[in-house]
């Protein structure tokens, strides 16, 4: 279990945007003990839903287990240790991170099972890693996609005097993709170099299929399947290079195509139950109302497309769907012309890289009844403003607007604390989620 108790003792300050005035100077625990209401908070806001978070964590944990997969969800999505703990409590065997700085943050909370979905080549961070490896409870695995990467790791770890070998997965990429060896043959050469080392240990095959598709079209699904099949080809080709001194991973799976991972890996999972067939999906916990709403196999929209193209088995298999656990709230601060209102939240507050926010509801204030806002749109955003193009319904100066958000990965980095309400229909704040970006 991570050491989270210290977060409850942090003092809230005027530097933490969105908090009520009366929270300033209190510790997190003291403030929550007063039963705060969302209506006390200042806008703009991003709010999380406790019921949806619990539902999503349990659903994804059960889905993965039913398919013979283990979860090491990507923690860089939220950089929130309290949310990582929810994922661990739901059965995840560890947390994935993207940089050694994030690893250091996670270790400061006592996290002892980490996958670095990246290479570690800097002598400073490798020196830190070597010191952390003195803890026998610490399970760590990272990636390498070239012989040069392996040699850089060896140099840094030897200089630091690593107490044990570091588990390394060979990363397979694809032409036009992100990192990763560009062919199975190139990746096999990297794997053989890792296996020959006395400083690092060959621990499996890794990669990221998400960069090869951005939708549920037949072409995207075929590209993803082809990549995952190449992963299995590589895993089979280097089988003789594995030792019996530790775990072996085969890992893929962002939050968009994990159904295809289960489909392609299925026979191999049955044949090799001791291999850690690992999903790194991170966005599922919060889900969203935009990009993942339309592409995740555990959302109604993507499931319908998957069924239509005859692909992913998850289309009709899951007993339930992921729910968006985040909502943005902005307040109308200007009504400069007919059909246009300006909200007080913009790019500094809400994500915009995978689609603009979607107006869903409006209310006179945070403690007033919400009403649907069906035909309004956000047409543009500035740093601290969103342009709300009104449809058939006017929105008064001072009213609040609830926004569906797209892409949790670029939501959390904008907030130090995010209030968590009990659930839909409640404005009782039960938690403040602290991020570490």
From TrEMBL:
InterPro entries the record matches: D-amino_acid_metab_enzyme, D-ser_dehydrat-like_dom, D-ser_dehydrat-like_sf, PLP-binding_barrel
D-serine dehydratase-like domain sequence ranges: 325-422
UniProt-recorded name of the protein: Amino acid aldolase
Classification of source organism: Bacteria, Bacillati, Actinomycetota, Actinomycetes, Micrococcales
């Amino acid at each position: 279990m991570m050491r989270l108790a210290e977060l409850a003792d942090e003092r809230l300050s005027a530097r933490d945007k969105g908090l009520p005035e009366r929270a300033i100077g209190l510790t997190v625990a003291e403030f929550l003990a007063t039963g705060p209401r969302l209506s006390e908070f200042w806008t703009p806001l991003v709010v999380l839903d406790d019921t949806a978070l619990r539902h999503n964590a349990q659903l994804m944990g059960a889905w993965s287990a039913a398919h013979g997969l283990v979860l090491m969800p990507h923690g860089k999505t939220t950089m929130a240790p309290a949310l990582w703990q929810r994922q661990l409590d739901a059965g995840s065997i560890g947390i994935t991170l993207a940089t050694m700085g994030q690893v250091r943050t996670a270790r400061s909370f006592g996290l002892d099972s980490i996958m670095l979905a990246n290479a570690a080549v800097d002598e400073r961070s490798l020196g830190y890693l070597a010191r952390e490896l003195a803890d026998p409870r610490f399970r760590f695995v990272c990636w390498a996609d070239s012989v040069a990467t392996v040699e850089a790791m060896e140099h840094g770890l030897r200089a630091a005097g690593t107490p044990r070998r570091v588990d390394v997965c060979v990363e397979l990429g694809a032409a036009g993709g992100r990192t990763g060896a560009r062919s199975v043959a190139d990746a096999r050469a990297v794997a053989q170099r890792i296996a020959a080392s006395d400083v690092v240990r060959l621990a499996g095959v890794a990669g990221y299929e998400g960069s090869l598709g951005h939708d549920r079209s037949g072409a995207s699904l075929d590209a993803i399947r082809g990549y995952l099949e190449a992963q299995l080809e590589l895993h089979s080709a280097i089988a003789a290079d594995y030792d019996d001194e530790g775990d072996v991973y085969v890992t893929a799976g962002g939050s968009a195509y994990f159904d295809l991972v289960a489909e392609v890996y299925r026979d191999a999972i049955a044949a090799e139950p001791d291999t850690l067939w690992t999903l790194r999906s991170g966005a599922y916990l919060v889900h969203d109302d935009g990009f993942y709403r339309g592409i995740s196999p555990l959302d109604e929209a993507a499931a319908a497309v998957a069924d239509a193209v005859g692909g992913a088995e998850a289309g009709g298999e899951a007993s339930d769907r992921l729910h968006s656990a985040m909502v943005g709230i902005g307040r109308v601060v200007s009504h400069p012309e007919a059909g246009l209102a300006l909200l007080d939240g913009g790019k500094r507050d809400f994500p915009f890289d995978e689609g603009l926010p979607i107006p869903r509801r409006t209310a006179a204030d945070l403690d007033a009844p919400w009403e649907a806002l069906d035909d309004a749109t956000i047409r543009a955003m500035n740093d601290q403003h969103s342009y709300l193009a009104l449809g058939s319904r006017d929105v008064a100066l001072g009213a609040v607007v609830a926004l569906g958000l797209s892409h949790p990965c670029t939501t959390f980095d904008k907030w130090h604390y995010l209030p968590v309400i009990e659930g839909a229909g409640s404005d009782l704040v039960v938690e403040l989620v602290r991020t570490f970006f």
